[in-house]
Amino acid sequence: MNRDDEHYLRQAIALARTGMERGDGGPFGCVIVKDGQVVGTGNNRVTSTNDPTAHAEVVAIRAACARLGSFQLDGCTVYTSCEPCPMCLGALYWARPARIVYAATRADAADAGFDDSLIYEELPLDPAERRYPMEHHLREEAQQVFAAWKAMGDKVKY
Amino acid sequence: MNRDDEHYLRQAIALARTGMERGDGGPFGCVIVKDGQVVGTGNNRVTSTNDPTAHAEVVAIRAACARLGSFQLDGCTVYTSCEPCPMCLGALYWARPARIVYAATRADAADAGFDDSLIYEELPLDPAERRYPMEHHLREEAQQVFAAWKAMGDKVKY
Predict the structure, then answer these.
(1) CB-CB: which of B70, B101, B141 is closest to A136?
(2) Contact B69, A48 (CB under 8 A)
(3) pLDDT tens for residues B12-27?
(4) Which stretch of DSSP H or E encloses residue B100?
(5) How far apart are CA A80 and CA A124, in angstroms?
(6) How far apart are CA A75 and CA A9, in angstroms?
(7) What is the tens place of the pLDDT at every residue in A129-152?
(8) What proportions of chain A, in percent to the nearest 5, are helix, strand and coil?
(9) Which of B58, B81, B145 lies nearest to residue A13, judging by beta carbons?
């Protein structure tokens, strides 16, 4: 870990603490850096904004993408105070940053009362065997929309 | 599948198509229902809003939670035109609805050019072995914030 990494990761941890102390939500913070500049920050705001998706990483990704005017985090490093939960890791895969650096682990999060580990365990299961049972129907009708997407000429891929 | 399920799932598929045709983003739609009422809808808006997290399910979850004034989807059924990607499935686990019903599968999404399957394959891997390498440092400093969270008396859990 170089000095910049240490600086920004510590900043993410500080955001976790101040957000928690302010009552925004859980103790999680995130800082996104591109070319030596902070382009987005976030802390957990789930309970104060009634938004279960408002995890630190999602908040920071949305802020950074808005600032960069892009739906991709090309060349960015994401510093987060805790190993991303599956939702946030999925969001990071869609945003495609260059690097991800975190501090605490999913085990630490579980120990503090957060469901990250449970969700990691559930994701590889067959959809029908999960804690929240999932069923599927009308597959052919939905496939027709995908066929229309594939046939569409001027689409923006992501 | 009962008649209501068929109705709402078809509505989610219709949102997928109209959103795609309008140029909002990919061909995905979602409808959230509670006690026989639609409480939130969404379609993919990634490319038109520069928000990689603006998948149909995330958009619908945020809308439904705002309307319900809650960060939980207690008693709700989520209808989505495609099997949720790991980001959206994680978001659903955090929102804790009663049921999830989908139409197309992750294989259908992959066939249409979307990364859902890749992300499902990457999630169970060790963080250091993923396509986007992840490193971690300063664990003890982050653990201190979790300890402060655990010691805090008047917190809202989620």
Answers:
(1) B101
(2) no
(3) 999 999 999 999 999 9
(4) strand B99-104
(5) 24
(6) 17
(7) 998 879 999 999 999 999 999 999
(8) 50, 20, 35
(9) B145
The Cα B53–Cα B59 span in angstroms is: 8
Contact B148 A17 (CB under 8 A): yes
> Using CB atoms, which residue from B13, B132, B158 is nearest to A100?
B132
Provide long-range contacts, Cβ within 8 A and 24+ apart, for B3-10.
B4/B33, B4/B36, B5/A137, B5/B77, B5/B79, B5/B101, B6/A137, B6/A138, B8/B33, B8/B38, B8/B77, B8/B79, B8/B101, B9/A137, B9/A138, B9/B79, B9/B81, B9/B101, B9/B102, B9/B103, B10/A138, B10/A141
Active site residue B122: no
Tokens of A35: 């070319």
Cα(A134)–Cα(B102) distance, rounded to whole angstroms? 7
Q: What are the chain B neighbours of A25 within 8 Å (beta carbons)? A: 156, 158
| B71–A17 C-beta distance less than 8 A | no
Max CA separation in chain A (angstroms): 54
Check CB contact of B128 with chain A, cutoff 8 Å: no
Query: Mean pLDDT over residues A30-50, rounded?
Result: 98
Minimum Cα–Cα distance from A82: chain B residue: B142
Take residue B28 and report the two structure tokens written for it. 């995905």
- Report ipTM for this prediction: 0.96
Q: What are the b/e assignments for A41-50, b being 16+ CB within 10 Å?
A: bbbbbbbebb
Residues in chain B: 158
**Residue B65 predicted with pLDDT over 90:** yes
Chain A contact set for B30 (CB, 8 A): none
**Average pLDDT of the residues in B101-123:** 94
Interface contact flag, B6 A93, Cβ < 8 Å? no
d(CA B100, CA A51): 19
